[in-house]
Amino acid sequence: MPITTLIHVFTTDAQQYTEAVSFNVDPLAFAAAQDIPTSTLIEAFISATFASTARPSTSKVIGYSVEIVNDLELSPLGGNGSVATAIAAKCRSGIGSIGPVSPVGVPEGIELRIPGLNKSAVVFDPVNPNSISTPGSPFAAVRTALSALNYQDDQGNILGSGAIVETAIAFNGKRAPKRSR
Description:
By secondary structure, the chain is an alpha+beta fold. The protein has helices at 39-49, 139-148; strands spanning 3-12, 18-25, 60-70, 87-93, 110-115, 131-132, 167-172. It folds into two domains: 3-70, no CATH class; 87-172, no CATH class. It has a four-stranded antiparallel beta sheet with strand order 5-4-7-6, with no helix packed on it. A hairpin with a 5-residue loop joins β1 (3-12) and β2 (18-25). Helix content is 12%, strand content 28%.
């Protein structure tokens, strides 16, 4: 399983045009006593590269991230890919407490989209054929795994297992057919 570690630096300019500078660094090995590159090292690169004078760039840095990619192409995990990725379960977590606010002022929660929905493994609501029942299997396993990962909203609030995957609907997005090259 080849592992790649990348650093992404997100920039903007006075015209609000954004761009990212991305590059590989020494890859991390999972389950090894290693640290990701420290903020001090990353910010040293930013300081050396971006400034208003005497630097290669005048762009403002608005953020950076470290991405660790574990390539599973040779031995993939999960299913067999038989269902199109556009067919998905759209799950909502933290309804009523976090996320964008609805027109009536209630937080709508955060969305987690699970592609390739296996419709034969889920239970649909008999009243709403697009609504999926989340209290039972298989979402209980998803909820447990997300809780173990300390699943959180985009503000960094860790969600308790009771607030994860509260609702789900079947979703079929549009996807153009692959074109020959």
